[in-house]
Design goal:
3 helices; 3-stranded antiparallel beta sheet; alpha+beta; about 110 residues; two-stranded antiparallel sheet
């Protein structure tokens, strides 16, 4: 049963991420995490601050949308972030709505 639940959450999260401007991901084949590209946001500005990499993205997201992600630099990929889907569908939707709101406010 839990394998089905996590597969459903994984598909949900991947679909929501791929709808966010500047972000993309593939659906994972295992674990409870998605590694999402933020390449389309690097070098752009959020409220005047340049998103220089995954740490800056994570800091700005946490400060402004109260949403935590793991910077990809911890895994050797500064243009990615890691998100967990080991939570409820409600939390996934709420978190991705905050991330989408944040990304829609990013400017060139």
């Amino acid at each position: 049963r839990m394998v089905e639940v996590f597969a459903s959450r994984s598909r949900l999260m991947a679909g929501l991420i791929n709808a966010v401007p500047g972000m993309s991901c593939r659906e994972p084949e295992g674990a409870f995490y998605i590694f999402a590209s933020i390449r389309g946001l690097i070098g752009k500005k959020y409220r005047g601050e340049v998103i220089t990499g995954s740490v800056k993205f994570a800091e700005l997201l946490l400060e402004n949308e109260l949403t935590a992600v793991v910077p990809g630099i911890a895994f050797g990929a500064d243009d990615y972030i890691r998100l967990s889907y080991a939570t409820s569908e409600e939390n996934i939707k709420k978190g991705l709505a905050r991330i989408e709101k944040f990304c829609r406010e990013v400017e060139d």
